[in-house]
Amino acid sequence: MTVGMAVRERILHLCEERELSVNKLSTISGVTQSTVNNITSGRNNSATVATVKKLCDGLGITLREFFSAPEFDDLEQEIV
Fold it and tell me: What predicted TM-score, i.e. pTM, was given to this entire model?
């Protein structure tokens, strides 16, 4: 699994857990709907830390909580 895929899965899992639509997450986090849609659909595999931080703020969690998840345990090394 790549970092982008892990971020996507984590966001979708957190939205499901909180019964939030992706559009609602966009509204409460201040991240544009197109950006959130691109991340969650897999079209954007390189979300910035700043964007993830805004999403975390909208979800009411810290970056540490976001990245402390099984999705990030066994990531492949990505060579650009």
Answer: 0.89
